[in-house]
């Protein structure tokens, strides 16, 4: 191994993290500085190889020096978003994983699977949902860390006392926005999955009426996209206001009224679903009961959502 | 963390700003990386090369230093010089340093 190799390898290791444009400049400067330091030691009587060794060891780990040169974050999620990321991820895992486990297990049991396969597919399903959740949530925050519009905290000059977080839930936090967006995305994914593949393994059977595709489903997606946009606006505004709550109510009704109308018209849920899944022959009755529960669910959730937004706007 | 490591960390934090100030004041005459390192050490500013080199680039990026490659000699070197903004920063930091020194002197004495 000859003498120049160590220096060049060291420079290479340092400049890896430096943006392309400045790489040659940093390398040239570092090369001159290292050569100066080696010369100084050789003038003091040290052999060339020892001098190079000592200079490079003194400069320390290349990664640390590289971190000093890099003017971009060398972390995935920094202090600006870490707490939001952690809170959202924990919350989503705590909510979605049990739901996924329950849903998968129920689907398997309903389709008449044995105990072993039920446990097997539940475990593997929950694992893959968890991995997806963690990946996509983290990816969003990584993108925000790099391309997010808000300046880093230490550079924020225009923060105000009014901007301090409220001790109560305002429903307009960063986490609120992201959880809304992610739930909407997961909901859309579930609907597409249901209509195209079905949730019952081995049966190409959707829970929702296949006749809803494409018109009604497209309409639903438009409403969901508007809800997502509303969540972003509420977050940017900083709190719920009465006009925003009115928009929320309109969107809620735009979802609930057609859904209820379709439900009582018998066109929302797939009439073939329960008779196929429930093999004892009571499928039609289960369908009836489930329709009533779904109706109350839609009314309850929508009303609560509308009232909650107004409650937050009035505070 | 041992006591010694803690001491090192605290000393490093205490010195960080003084090195910026020293660089800005020394570079009213153009200087390059290693030469500046020598001068800092000779003047009693205990500085590591791996702190100084990235620091010079950051100050340049902020507009407090200007730089120029000097290729007249056998070894091309990047020379830095304090900009007008850098001089204003140096003056402000010097004032603040005096204020801090005064405030520390007025603290209750350690036995």
From TrEMBL, chain A:
The chain crosses the membrane at residues 88-110, 122-144, 174-193, 213-234, 246-269, 289-307. Keywords: Membrane, Transmembrane, Transmembrane helix. InterPro entries: Perm_prefix_1 (IPR047928). The keyword Transmembrane helix applies. Pfam families: HAAS (PF22564). It comes from the Bacteria. The keyword Membrane applies. NCBIfam families: perm_prefix_1 (NF038403). This is Uncharacterized protein. It comes from Microbacterium saccharophilum.
UniProtKB/TrEMBL annotation, chain B:
InterPro entries: Metal_resp_DNA-bind_regulator, Tscrpt_reg_PadR_N, WH-like_DNA-bd_sf, WH_DNA-bd_sf. The keyword Cytoplasm does not apply. The keyword DNA-binding applies. Keywords: DNA-binding. GO terms for molecular function: DNA binding. Residues 26-90 form the Transcription regulator PadR N-terminal domain. This is DNA-binding transcriptional regulator, PadR family.
